[in-house]
């Protein structure tokens, strides 16, 4: 089921506006947690841009250099986004916290922090609900973690996890600002920044694992594969499917390679006709299988 770009655009607009307001509040109050949150939102903004870039690049038609197309561009940019969350978002946030722990700065007036955090929570909440709605549409009745692991569209679950990290980071930043101001101890603010860095790192590890798996090439799920084999072996010219290999190029583009044992009495012309018929049957049922490579074999081994 094709994914909607609405969660991406929603997150892009929200994160850009929130990043500006967070840096504004950090500049006024000197809050380390707010600086980390500003960095967090800025990285998220860049992530949405990169994912949209990946989607557009993945639509580029096949050419001599890429005979199977550019579908994996989306998976590459999703991997880059995961690295950015870890290296830039998590790393700088943690470093910012350590710096303020060594050289503490007291928060003078937390009012702006609270205002910005409230606005950010509202917009990030809307973005999170939009991403969750899209992800729920795609996964149907599949359990959440199973859907994340089996999803072939990183643009949806990356935004979902980003927004979840945003909300957790905002809660952490609020606690750091509140406790730091209440107890007149800037250590709380610095620790909040370090915790935000750890949250981003944890989210990044999950996304890196999933993005890496997609980039390396995942196969069609077993249920769909058995249905495809059933379609093939239901053809009167086919004796059995000897081997099968498949790989996702993009969420809506699959390569399927088949080694099929045809009935011995068939001529070359008949086998060619059968292969064409089998391709049409499979692509009618599974239109996302764009490339079907068939190697005939008349003898079972």
From TrEMBL:
GO biological process: zinc ion transport
Residues spanning the membrane: 6-25, 74-92, 112-131, 157-178, 190-208
This protein's record includes keyword Transcription: no
Positions of the Cation efflux protein transmembrane domain: 10-216
Subcellular location: Membrane
Gene Ontology CC entries for this record: membrane
Top-level taxon of the source organism: Bacteria
GO molecular function: monoatomic cation transmembrane transporter activity
NCBIfam families: CDF (TIGR01297)
Protein name: Cation diffusion facilitator family transporter
Organism listed in the record: Hufsiella arboris
């Amino acid at each position: 089921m094709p994914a909607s770009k609405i969660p991406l655009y929603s997150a892009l607009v929200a994160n850009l506006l929130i990043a500006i307001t967070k840096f504004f509040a950090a500049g006024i109050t000197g809050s380390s947690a707010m600086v980390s949150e500003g960095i967090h939102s800025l990285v998220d903004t860049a992530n949405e841009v990169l994912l949209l870039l990946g989607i557009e690049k993945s639509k580029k038609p096949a050419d001599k250099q890429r005979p199977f197309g550019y579908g994996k561009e989306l998976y590459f940019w999703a991997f880059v986004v995961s690295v950015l969350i870890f290296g830039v978002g998590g790393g700088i946030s943690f470093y910012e916290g350590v710096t303020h722990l060594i050289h503490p700065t007291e928060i003078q007036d937390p009012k702006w922090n609270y205002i910005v955090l409230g606005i950010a929570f509202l917009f990030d909440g809307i973005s999170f609900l939009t991403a969750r709605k899209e992800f729920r549409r795609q996964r149907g009745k599949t359990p959440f973690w199973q859907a994340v692991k089996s999803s072939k569209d990183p643009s949806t679950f990356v935004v979902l996890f980003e927004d979840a990290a945003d909300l957790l980071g905002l809660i952490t930043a609020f606690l750091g600002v509140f406790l730091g101001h209440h107890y007149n101890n800037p250590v709380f603010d610095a620790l909040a920044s370090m915790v935000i860095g750890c949250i981003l790192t944890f989210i990044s590890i999950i996304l890196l694992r999933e993005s890496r798996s997609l980039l390396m090439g995942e196969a069609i799920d077993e249920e769909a594969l058995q249905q495809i084999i059933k379609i093939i072996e239901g053809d009167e010219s086919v004796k059995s499917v000897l081997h099968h290999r498949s790989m996702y190029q993009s969420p809506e583009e699959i390569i399927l390679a088949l080694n099929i044992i045809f009935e011995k009495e068939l001529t070359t012309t008949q086998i060619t006709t059968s292969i064409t018929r089998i391709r049409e049957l499979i692509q009618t049922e599974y239109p996302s299988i764009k490339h079907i490579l068939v190697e005939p074999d008349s003898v079972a081994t």
